[in-house]
Design a protein that fits this description.
Blueprint: E1 9-14, H1 15-25, E2 27-28, E3 31-32, E4 37-44, E5 51-65, E6 72-85, E7 88-101, E8 105-109, E9 112-118, E10 127-129, H2 131-141, H3 148-164, E11 168-177, E12 188-189, E13 191-197, E14 206-212, E15 237-242, H4 243-259, E16 276-277, E17 284-293, E18 296-305, E19 308-321, E20 324-336, H5 348-378, E21 387-393, E22 397-402
Length: 422
Amino acid sequence: MSLLAGYDIVIELSNELVRELVITNLRLSGAKAAPPFEFSVPFKAEPGNASAGAFHLNVNAIEVDLQTTRPTTIQIFFADASAETPIGTIRSLDGCIEVPVYFPYILTKNNEAYISLDLSGIEPWRIAFTSESRQHAEDQLRGKALSYSHFEASCQETLAEFIQKQGLLLIPTGLTIVSEQGEVSPLKFHELEAHGVGPAEKAQQALGLFGTLFIDHSYDGTASFKTRSAIPTGLQITLSISSDVFCRLVFCDSVAEVLGCTIDDLPTACGRGNQNSYANSGCMLSSIEAALEDNYVAFRGAVKSKFGDVKFQSSIVLAISDGKVISSVKSLDLFASGALCDEGGPGGEAETEELKPLIEAIVTAVRKNICDKLSDCVGSGLLEGKPEQVLIVKDQGITFACRSRLALNREREAASGICGRA
């Protein structure tokens, strides 16, 4: 499975969280649509004819389907509905209105990103009664002037027209999109897309927000390459940062802040300079880089001073404490690489011991900056729920997982066997 599918940052919202967001923001005829609720729509005796009564629905559940291989779908389950027709009222109707959203996309208003679900794409055959309700309606219509096939077609047309009039469902994300290059702290995207992620089983599905920060990365990602969600069991949101984003916008930026210079002033692989001094120490940084390993971050660099060249490498472990990103040093090793500049002989242990406090200070300061930037990033928009887990995947990226701010305490009602309910 590809963690980021070629994108810079991917935010995943669990099926259960997307369901809650839909319920929180859905309006039908201007009224809030949080189950259980009732609504009525004009009923047509036959398709194409004028209204001749009303269709009353009792909605008891709303769910979503986010499969990778099919449209994102909103499912509206109803029970004990009734339809007023010219030959009397047909009662005890249970079923589901399935609204396929073929193109969930990101709508930007004043630089704020909204998940936009267009409800106007509903097709009549997406409305279905349970087999029991179908049999009950056929019994009530037997021998009457209105056939069951006409009755069902009228129900479908009635509900399709009603749903199509509802327009866009907008879900605010609290995320920002800018025309220039994006940022990590605070989190700002250059581009953002929405795609379903996951198999048929709803508990394993997610809605992915696939983001680009670097302008030169536009169109590099392929969302379909991400076929499985990275959300751990029991949590609702993940944010994954690519290795490139971490190295360029988190690590290199932190080093530049610690040294009081620009990123361009840094030696490669961060910048275009050859070296930079630290804290007026006379110690010059001649190289610096970071790499993501399995569950830790590796720093490597070299320092040039009056003692000669000293290489260092450090392993940093990231963790979560009270909703903040923290770090600890797993190891810090120094290697003397030449003779003492002033004394003409090998420096050995004395050389490394002299520089060790300075290098430790650099690593400590960089660690703190990294944790601050990652904490700011994870706390953006929908991600304001405190992170609970962090996972580093070698060469791919860092994933943070957290619970939603929303109270996910709605119980699922049993309605198996219709609309592919899982």
